[in-house]
Structures are given as structure tokens and as C-alpha cells.
Amino acid sequence: MDIRDQHFNLGEWNNIIESSLSDPDSEPLVNIVGDEDALYDAIYVGGGAGGRFGSAYMKAMGGRPLIIDAWPFLGGSCPHQACVPHHLFSEAAEELDRMRWFSDELFFPKFDQSRASILEMVKLFLAGRGSAHAFMNWQTKEQLDVEYILNARATIIDKTTVQAAGRTFKAKNLVLGMGARPINPEIPGLDLRGVHDFVSLVETLDYEPTKCVIIGGSKVAMEYGSFFQATGCDTTIVSRSPLMRTKSLHHVDEDLRQYVVGGMRKRGMEILEGAHPISVNDDGSGRVQTVTVRLATGEEVELDTDFVFVACGELPNTTQAREVLDIDLSETGRVIVNKRMQTNVPGVYAIGDMIDGPMEMFKARKSGVTAARNIMGEDLEFDYSEFPDFLHTTYEVTWVGLTEAEARDEYGSENVIIIQMPPYVEGLDTPNLPLPCAEGTMLYAFSKPELSGYQKLVINGETRKVVGAHHVGYGAKDAFQYLDYLIHRPDGLTIDELGWMNELFLNPEHFVQLSRLRAGNAKLRHL
Ligand code: KPC
Questions:
Q1: CA 316 to centroid of ligand 1, rounded, Å
Q2: What is the pLDDT along the chain (527 residues), one digit of tens a residue?
Q3: Checking CA distances to 288, which of 34, 273, 413, 447 falls within 20 to 30 Å?
Q4: Which atom of ligand 1 is nearest to the CA of 364?
């Protein structure tokens, strides 16, 4: 369908996308100028976050990009199956957690677990996800003026030629952003009914799980597991590594880790670390019934379950990159790129979930933009080896920079100053301390203080520079994206500068006031 001269509103886009998704024979959605000998500056193969932001930036710089995507919408897996449902479910987990702790107290009703349903939340997501899709298509066409072909699989012919929707397109460069899919480990029984990952959870879940075994200890395991548990689905995580000590996470402070993982256990989750899943077993009718696990002790146990959730990471979609373009891959199966997002093949770039590093939005979008700016002649490097990170349990957990242990290694133990809340003082009854009472934890601080979170700031006592910040609570992600910038800029950020900032109310990251309490010391002291 040629949509170049049609200007759909959001409702119309929603209908087009829904009907395209439900009909495998639906037509491609073609939004191109249509000049015969078009030579694009780049074809973005994949219109996820990286493709959309990269092409928008290229267009803004005066270039001519084309996006081709197999889905009938832009934005990729984020609004369809990944980040958006994850955030929806995590927000539900936070609300459910609060309702459970305060059941029949204050103004809270008695908690009715029968109304907390994984399936209902999936349905809520499915009923709403089209609106994000519609907006992405509308904005990219009407506001960003980027050409695209959707609902059409791209076939890469060579490094300047791509076919889609029965036509051939030429470009000076290719940018590969075909995304990734969940990894299925080699464990027998993963084909049984009742086994899901974050994709199939939203696409095919058709019953209410009551008992869950999660295979894997990734962020996804912790985040979805916390949500399942909060709905009342008893959840066990089976992880080879200790939680938050998996290779994909960096700079996880041990005190923060203990607060987070301890909090998951406090809420009833079973967490089996050092454990290996052996097999997923059926009930005789093709549905999952148990999981056999070898515990860290060597003992084998059978865990009863009606729901297995696989959370073992993701692998990029590299078939065409390998087979057609001969692109080099890393040991982990990701496309190897330099800091300009260039692959080993001149004129071919890779971005987003195709490349190493965190599977997070900032990397996806900025890698797409980095490719665009280099293609347009800038000499720009994007180094994502240091980045702030976060995950959700029933809390929002946020961290940036060095852990306390890393700082002690780097600067010498005697030069590291810690400011934390609750303070670590031998014998102090901190479970009764109504601090930290940052944003979102006031009710906890006044009723159940031990649930009110954890905060730690790590400082180089010699230079007075902040080298790490670690936060468990709510609402600190915004603060941390700025803290990340400030502590990593060449000037860094001193305790004195932090303590002189203008805090708003209690300030979610809470470090402003705490820094001010210590900044007057010529020789810094712990707090
Ligand atoms: C609704 C929303 O912002 C999440 S989906 C983002 C996809 S994109 O804007 O292409 O990064």
C-alpha cells in the first residue's frame, strides 16, 4: 500500500497496524518518495529504536535514509514485547507490593490476591500497545519526514543493495539493526506448553500461572520474577550465578545487592543460586509439570510448577549479516563494531541489540545516531563501556560509577569515603530508622522503615570527587542520568558541588543533603 500521500491519524494507524499484524498476507506499507534512481545515504535494516533515531538524525543533518522493517510499525521490540511491557509489569509489581504490605491498613483495602493476575496485565498491555506503534509510525512520517517501508522483510543482496516489497533499493551504506531474540538454553522440555520467555509471555500466554520456575539469573529474571511473585504466583529463580553477579552487569555494589536480593526473598521468592536446571518435565499431556534442578550442594530436586519462564539473555539476528555480508561476530554472537559502529565491511554499520554492550535504550538509540553522524561525515565515537544501569524488582534499583570495593581497589581503602543511608554503625537499630525516605518511600518510612530503601555514595577522599552512586527506592533514574554525566565529565563532580545543589523536597537520590552535611570537613569522613 502506497501511503506516501496519505496522512493517517493515530486511530487510523492503529487499525492499519492491527490488521497487518493479524493478516500474514497483508501488504507492505510503503512510505517512499519513489524516484526511480534513488541512492540513499543509508538503508537502516530494522526500524527499532536505533534505526528510528539514527535515520531521524541523518534526515535532520540533510541526509537521505530509508528504513525497512518486517513489522508493520517502527520502534522495534521495545514497545511490542520488551521494554514497554517490562516497565508496565514492574510498575504493577511496585503497586502490588505496596498494597500487600499495607493490606487493610490506613486507607488501603484488604489485599485481594484473586484480582492480581499476570494474564490480566498481559491483556492490558496487548490492548494498549498499538497506540505506541501508531505514534512511532505517525511521528516518523509526519514530523521527522523519514522514508520507510514496513511490513516487508528486507533481503540484503550486497552491501549497497537491499530488496523489499518486490523492489530493489540502493544505498551508499547499510546500517544493520535487526534486533535480537531470547536465547533458549539446551535444556530438554523447553518446547512444552507453559514454557515462556518475555516474547511468548505477551504473545501467547492463555492461562493464569500459579507457580513459576525461572531459568536464568538475568535482569529479566529478576524483573519478571518480582512481578510474578507480586501477583501471587510463587516464583523460584534457578540461577547458575549469584543474582546481580552475572557477566552482563557491571559495578554492582555488594551492599546494594544484598538489600535487593534480600528484599526479593523477604517477599517470598525462592532464589537458588549456583543451581543448574537439568530438564523441564511434562505432565503426560505436553504441559509443564516439574523442573529438575541440581542444587549448589549437588543434590537433585524436582520443583513443581505450571509455568516456566526462560530468562537467559538474548542473541542477535545475524543470519544475513554473516551469510551475505561476511560480517565478523564476537564469541557471544554479536556483531563486532568499532566506536563508530563500523563493522569489518566498509560501509556496513551495526547498531542496537546486534552489538555487544547493554541491551538498553540509550545504547540502541545512540548507536543508531553514531552511525548516522559518521555516515554524514562527522568523526564521532560512542563509547558505551561506562554507563549508568538500573533494574526493577518491586523497587527501582539504580547505580552508576564504581562500587565501594572497586573504589577501594582503585584508590586505596584509606582514601575511600562512604556516605550511606541507613548509616552503617555497629549496633544501631537501622531497621527502625525511617530513612532513607526518598521519593516513593514515605509510607514505608513511617510504617515499615526497613522497606524504605538503600543509598550509598562513594567518594575519593583525596580528590573529593564522587566516583559511584547506588540507590534502591523509586524515582531516581532521572537523577542518575544526570549524575552519570556529571561524574564522568573530565571535571568530575565533587562532594562540595553536589552538596551545593538545590534539592527539591527530599530529593530522590538524597545525596545532596548528605553531601552538604560532610562537605565542610577539610578531611572527609564517612557518614
Ligand atoms: C512509547 C515509547 O516511547 C517507548 S517505544 C520507543 C521506541 S523508539 O522511540 O523508537 O526508541
A1: 19
A2: 999 999 999 999 999 999 999 999 999 999 999 888 999 999 999 999 999 999 999 999 999 999 999 999 999 999 999 999 999 999 999 999 999 999 999 999 999 999 999 999 999 999 999 999 999 999 999 999 999 999 999 999 999 999 999 999 999 999 999 999 999 999 999 999 999 999 999 999 999 999 999 999 999 999 999 999 999 999 999 999 999 999 889 999 999 999 999 999 999 999 999 999 999 999 999 999 999 999 999 999 999 999 999 999 999 999 999 999 999 999 999 999 999 999 999 999 999 999 999 999 999 999 999 999 999 999 999 999 999 999 999 999 999 999 999 999 999 999 999 999 999 888 999 889 999 988 899 999 999 999 999 999 999 999 999 999 999 999 999 999 999 999 999 999 999 999 999 998 777 778 999 999 999 999 999 99
A3: 273
A4: 11
d(CA 196, CA 206): 11
CATH tag for 10-79+127-181+315-375 (out of 3.40.50.10320, 3.50.50.60, 3.40.50.740, 3.90.180.10): 3.50.50.60
Mutate to test the pocket of ligand 1, among 13, 78, 84 (most ligand atoms within 8 A of CB): 78
Q: Are 476 and 503 in contact (CB under 8 A)?
A: no
Q: Is 129 in the pocket of ligand 1 (CB under 6 A)?
A: no
Regarding the beta carbon of 49 and ligand 1, being less than 6 Å apart is answered yes
Q: Is any ligand 1 atom within 6 A of the Cβ of residue 132? A: yes
Is 74 a catalytic site residue? yes
Please tell me the distance from the alpha carbon of residue 436 to that of residue 473, in angstroms, as a whole number: 9
Active site residue 83: yes
Please tell me the residue having the least CA distance from ligand 1 atom 4: 79
| Boundaries of every domain in the chain | 10-79+127-181+315-375, 195-242+250-312, 395-518
Q: Please identify which residue in the block is written with the cell numbers 527506592.
A: 473
Active site residue 514: no
Cα(181) to centroid(ligand 1), Å? 18
The domain defined by 395-518 folds into: Enolase-like; domain 1 (3.30.390)
Active site residue 510: no
Nearest-CA residue for atom 7 of ligand 1:
75
Domain 10-79+127-181+315-375 identical in fold to domain 395-518: no
Whether residue 452 contacts residue 506, with contact meaning beta carbons closer than 8 Å, is answered with no
User: How far is CA 90 from its chain centroid?
Assistant: 11
Bond before 422 cis per omega within 30 degrees = yes
Instruction: Give residues with Cβ within 8 angstroms of 280, minimum separation 6.
Output: 187, 188, 189, 190, 192, 195, 215, 288, 290, 291, 292, 308
79 CB under 6 A from ligand 1?
yes
195-242+250-312 adopts what CATH topology? FAD/NAD(P)-binding domain (3.50.50)
Question: Known catalytic residue: 505?
Answer: yes
